[in-house]
Design a protein that fits this description.
Helices cover 33% and strands 22% of the residues. With 488 residues, it is of the alpha/beta class. Helix 10 links the parallel strand 13 and strand 14. It binds zinc ion.
Length: 488
């Protein structure tokens, strides 16, 4: 019997907060059992040769939308396969009641088990869910969701308030299927999440994620842009300008300060949003505020994102915004980089900018783009890249150190990446069900050759291997000790 189930040999191993070191990795029972100067190939049942390559901790793509526009089970299958191609081994997906997803509302006590059941057996990556608490009745389910269901994070959409204002006021919005989705609801939700964070915090972080765009300002700017006529993606940026992010962040921070709720400011897209988030953190050092941006806000501008195909909320902006976000990534103000993956078809973008579905996929570019642009072009350290894509999201969302690092005892979620492999982005290169990509034509250097999930090679040389073996991970992980922590 060999000592190790598998081993990754001869690679340069990138350990977050430590650096790049030459070592071999021995794997047993799906976890890392040894980090050694040299492991003999005969000591392992399976050897992955990483000579000339980087070995990174599997990325934790902490902003994902499984099933937002397609059948949930089908989407879980195709889009977690896409994730493996980008070196992602855990996805944390948003789910909420209302329009899209399962197109219904009700208590999570009945709906959440349905969501997990639909994903189980379909996901190629390990997975977890953040939950959008939409109704007054769901507010009382926060403690149950954390304590019993392993949902360590929640979401509030600042701009949905505007959708409620335009709806039949006696029945709430057809979109949110909620009655009073407003700042009052947010305040109550923050109190609930803050209470859960105090109760379960010893086991890992419990937090609330915020989509920050201000509804009333969006209404005014959309009307102005529509009066001027079609403006393409630049018009879309002007219809939801950075000012709406800035004001929304300010509103959110007042309530964060009042409740002490740990928060994540999602997909910051502009120089103004980054400044507002970073200032908020500096002036509220007693609060727990994390900042996120996306691959598309780092990589694209409204001039390069292929028109209507690049429609997303918040919008893709200018080159100056892109540069400001990169500065935030490099100087440490931004904690995490995510894909905000939301698979849809080119036909659903259509011709009308205002009717097109927002969002698109990008998870297969998570490590490739960060290595290509961040490490090879802009001089970020490899450790920093692994922190942005793996360690920081794992810490923010209650998965660390089981996920998010390369250490003895951690899950053997590993990516072997060839920093010399160059490929032009096409829809096919992303292994997704999406038939287009706003990243098309981008030349990217640094692609995974192998992705390992708990010690098993699940993606190799451009193809997914085996059947979906991803597991639901209850968070925060330390809540579930021993053998139970290995499964659901
Ligand atoms: Zn999103």
């Amino acid at each position: 019997m060999p000592r190790y189930q598998s081993a990754v040999l001869n690679g340069t191993v990138v350990i977050p907060h430590v650096g790049a070191v030459r070592c071999d990795i021995g794997i047993r029972d799906g976890t890392i059992a040894a980090l050694a100067e040299a492991i003999a190939p005969s000591d392992a049942a399976l050897v992955v040769d990483a000579r000339g390559k980087l070995v990174l901790p599997g990325a934790v793509d902490s902003h994902f939308h499984i099933g937002i526009y397609r059948d949930l089970a089908q989407d879980a299958r195709s889009e977690t396969a896409s994730a493996l191609a980008g070196g992602v081994t855990t996805v944390l997906s948003y789910f909420r009641t209302g329009q899209h997803y399962l197109n219904k509302s009700g208590p999570y006590r009945t709906i959440f088990p349905e969501v997990v059941a639909a994903t189980e057996g379909q996901a190629f990556t390990d997975f977890g869910y953040h939950i959008g608490v939409m109704t007054t009745e769901q507010l009382d389910e926060v403690d149950w969701l954390v304590g019993e269901q392993g949902v360590g994070s929640f979401k509030y959409y600042m701009f949905y308030k505007g959708l409620n204002l335009t709806a039949d006021s006696t029945r709430g919005s057809a979109y949110t299927m909620a009655d009073t989705y407003d700042l009052g609801h947010l305040y109550l939700l923050m109190r609930q999440v803050a209470a859960a964070a105090r109760k379960y915090g010893a086991h890992g972080r419990v937090s609330l994620s915020l989509h920050c765009e201000q509804a009333e300002l969006i209404r005014v700017f959309i009307e102005e842009v529509k009066r001027r006529g079609p403006g393409g993606l630049e018009g879309y940026h002007e219809a939801r300008p950075p000012l709406t992010e800035q004001l929304s962040i300010a509103e959110a921070l007042v309530l964060t300060d009042a409740t002490g709720c740990p928060v994540n400011l999602l997909h910051l897209s502009s120089a103004e949003a980054l400044a507002a988030g970073a200032d908020g953190r500096r002036t509220h050092p007693h609060l727990d505020i994390r900042l996120e941006t996306t691959l598309h806000h780092l990589a694209l501008t409204h001039a390069t994102a292929h028109g209507i195909l690049g429609k997303v909320n918040p919008p893709i902006r200018t080159d100056a915004d892109r540069e400001a976000l990169w500065r935030g990534v490099l100087d440490g103000r931004i904690d995490t980089v995510v894909s905000d993956h939301a698979c849809c078809a080119e036909a659903e973008k259509g011709e009308d900018l205002w009717k097109a579905l927002p969002g698109f996929g990008g998870t297969a570019l998570l490590y490739p783009y960060l290595v290509s642009e961040g490490y090879l072009r802009r001089g970020a350290t490899l450790a920093r890249i692994a922190e942005l894509a793996s360690a920081n999201p794992a810490r923010a969302f209650g998965l660390y150190p089981r996920k998010g690092t390369i250490a003895v005892g951690s899950d053997a979620d590993l990516v072997v990446l060839d920093p010399n492999r160059e490929q032009v982005v096409t829809p096919e290169a992303l292994h997704s069900a999406q038939d287009f990509t706003p990243f098309a034509g981008m030349r990217v250097r640094g692609w995974p050759t192998h992705t390992l999930l708990r010690g098993q090679v699940v993606f190799q040389d451009g193809a997914v291997r085996g059947t979906p073996a991803g597991r639901y991970v209850k968070r925060p992980v330390a809540l579930h000790a021993g053998a139970k922590a290995r499964g659901a």
